[in-house]
Amino acid sequence: MTREDEIFRQIKQGNKEYVDELVRMYYPEIFRYCIWHTKSYANAEDAVQETFLKAVRYLDRYTHKGKFRAFLYQIAANTCIDMNRRKYEEPMDTEILETFMEPAGVMDDVEETMDFLSLAENLPGEAKEIILLRFGQELKLREIADVMGLPLRTVQSKLRSAVRQLRERIMEKEAAASKKQRKRKLAEGKRGE
């Protein structure tokens, strides 16, 4: 029995203090997910709070089958969409994003994370979401399928396609940087003559 299973067993028996533990268990990863979708610390906090309020509100109707994490991500995704529709979005707060993401170990280098986010941002809707859930949130393919309401094979196919698109964009970016570096070296060489 997992810790999550035990928590739900306790909640079903009326021990409501276990709801707090459930929130603590998933708060950091849901917050990170919301920050990627709202691009602001304050909006992400609002989205996370709203996500957990909705989850707790519907807890009595939720039947635990080991998919609570996917259930939370579905709520968080819908909450972020609703917030963005209400024009809640502000420019990305990169300082907060950097300090939050570095200790969480999402990626070793914050600069790479920002590049990754900007590359993923340009992918079509479902592809972007699958990439963020898989690599940003480290969800398993089955969990992504549950969150997005797609068949597993569709998620696999869309992930392969999205990764291919990201690879192409990374190669284009590296080629452009290499070309720029060669031009700079050439210009420096002419100045040195």
Automatic annotation (TrEMBL):
Q: Note one Pfam family from the annotation.
A: Sigma70_r4
- Report domain RNA polymerase sigma-70 region positions: 22-87, 122-168
Classification via InterPro entries: RNA_pol_sigma-70-like (IPR039425), RNA_pol_sigma-70_dom (IPR014284), RNA_pol_sigma70_r2 (IPR007627), RNA_pol_sigma70_r4 (IPR007630), RNA_pol_sigma_r2 (IPR013325), RNA_pol_sigma_r3/r4-like (IPR013324), WH-like_DNA-bd_sf (IPR036388)
| Presence of keyword Transport | no
Where do the record's region annotations for Disordered lie?
174-193
Gene Ontology molecular function: any one? DNA binding
Q: Which CDD domains match?
A: Sigma70_r4
Q: Name one GO biological process term.
A: DNA-templated transcription initiation
Q: Which keywords, in A-to-Z order, does the entry hold? A: DNA-binding, Sigma factor, Transcription, Transcription regulation
- Give the record's family classification: Belongs to the sigma-70 factor family. ECF subfamily.
Question: Which protein is depicted?
Answer: RNA polymerase RpoE-like sigma-24 subunit
Q: What is the lineage of its organism?
A: Bacteria, Bacillati, Bacillota, Clostridia, Lachnospirales
